[in-house]
Specification:
The protein is built from seven helices and no strands. By secondary structure, the chain is mainly alpha-helical. The radius of gyration is 23 Å and the shape is globular.
Length: 192
Amino acid sequence: MAATGLRRSLFVVASLSCALAVSPHVARAQDVLDVKSATNLRDEYITDLDTLHSKFLQLANAIPADKYAWRPAPGVRSISEAFMHVASEFYFFAPMSIGGKPPADFGAPKEKLASLEKITSKSDVLAELDKSWAHCAAQLKAADPAALTGKYKPWGQTLAASAFAMTDDLHEHLGQLIAYSRSVGVKPPWSK
């Protein structure tokens, strides 16, 4: 009889532990970072984006200017449009991911984002990739980690969720541009 009572007690304790582990209060506590953790995560986010920027620039430099209009099929972004889409994310979405802003002269996002993809010359694309990254990096470095410890505006999610969303998207574009470069006979400079 004592063994059965002990098993029941252990079952109740285990059940309560499981319930507490998934309670909304515990789940919310897991969404909150301390300032040191937010600082470290923000810095890792910047490092990953900087690595992506470097690879985008390496590809943009390696692809010949006469291939910038190449697209895999009608209606699909060309090489220059894909690079300029990345620049638009550095100007607008990546800064927003930490509550930052686009450049003061950015204008209405819908029009500006569309107009960026109309930039087609290699030299202009390279300049925009650098300019957009400089803006993005400055916004990220200026972000106050104390403001990034929980869910924040404008996306209403945590720093981890925002950073993963942005880097996932940009890594996808890097893969796209690697495929594009190989399609026009250019091996990514960092490939062996």
